[in-house]
Amino acid sequence: MITSFHPPQRTLMGPGPSDVHPRVLSAMARPTIGHLDPAFIDMMDEIKKLLQYALRTDNPLTMPISAPGSAGMEACFVNLVEPGDKVIVCQNGVFGGRMKENVERFGGEALMVQDTWGTPVSIEKVRALMEAHDGIKALAFVHAETSTGVRSDAQALCRLARDYGCLTIVDAVTSLGGIELEVDQWGIDAIYSGTQKCLSAPPGISPVSFSERALEKASNRRTRVPSWFLDTNLVMGYWGGGQKRAYHHTAPVNALYGLHEALVMLQEEGIEHAWKRHALHHEALKAGLETLGLSFTVTADARLPQLNSVQVPEGVDEAQIRARLLENYNLEIGAGLGELAGKVWRIGLMGSSCTRRHVMLCIDALENTLS
Ligand code: PLP
């Protein structure tokens, strides 16, 4: 007979999910109530406020999509791209490639800005493309490329988009909670994130936020949004505000308790403190890795503190090292993705996995395993 599943106790230092704090796990074990229960609706309003806090926005359309980061990505593109729309898509890793897929699947034309993996999006290349084409509707880019560990200058890219009168669609799956992110101040129009990275909440939920300009585009389309589930005009009947909510779908009630608790913890710490904590422990990890003779893929000026892409030394079987870390230390680090598969390890310092204890364990385990 199949019996209950008891997962091993791992330490998660890969590209996500990160360790979920016991407070969050215990919040998820609280009694399930109805997704239209007045008490649940009050909690939904608190989640919206807490997400607005984390994203630094007053956008009324700020909510968690009941599906993973990929659905948040799709929600942005499906609502904001119409057939024939020209969208500049920046690709410097795996996730920019998915943005291109989204634009094309919804009938748009993706004008690509390609940059070498491990380097930030080139502002100059984006500017040149904006100059060369009329009627560009949106600029889409990944703030923190999880596949390489590089940070792009979201503020400068959004400023550029504003200068040319187009919307911005920003992937903040790995950036939210780990590095500075200012939705309103930078003028971001549509943003999506994930709960399993620097928020350290359970995976499978995707916070999104739309500016007034993005909402205007989404509600004045020539064509119907080709997804029923992700149509913001419909979802907002449930997530909109006030006690009067229309049933749209059955929300993942207990997972949302978890997100609520994780966001309460972020608020207790203070978002700016969380950014500083990620920077601090990254410095410690970097010092340790360098002592072991390991080097980074990304130059220091564009490196993400929460996702450390480290070169696998010559002659080392990278998969075997990861397997031994898991077996001997219950420690998960990530493999390379796409072009970087087999060449790098991705060491995450995200949310609850960004502590002194994590840094010490990782360096100690790597030292013993590599020698
Ligand atoms: N975008 C980025 C930058 C990511 O790192 C990820 C996941 O790692 C996604 C999108 C997709 O998120 P999910 O796996 O939650 O669907």
Automatic annotation (TrEMBL):
Pfam families xrefs: Aminotran_5 (PF00266)
Cofactor(s), names only, from the UniProt record: pyridoxal 5'-phosphate
Annotated Aminotransferase class V domain residues: 32-336
Keyword terms of this UniProt record: Aminotransferase, Pyridoxal phosphate, Transferase
Keyword Transferase attached: yes
Domain of life: Bacteria
GO molecular function terms noted in the UniProt entry: transaminase activity
Gene3D superfamilies: Aspartate Aminotransferase, domain 1, Type I PLP-dependent aspartate aminotransferase-like (Major domain)
PROSITE patterns: AA_TRANSFER_CLASS_5
Family: Belongs to the class-V pyridoxal-phosphate-dependent aminotransferase family.
Record's protein name: Alanine--glyoxylate aminotransferase family protein
Organism listed in the record: Marinobacterium alkalitolerans
Organism phylogeny: Bacteria, Pseudomonadati, Pseudomonadota, Gammaproteobacteria, Oceanospirillales
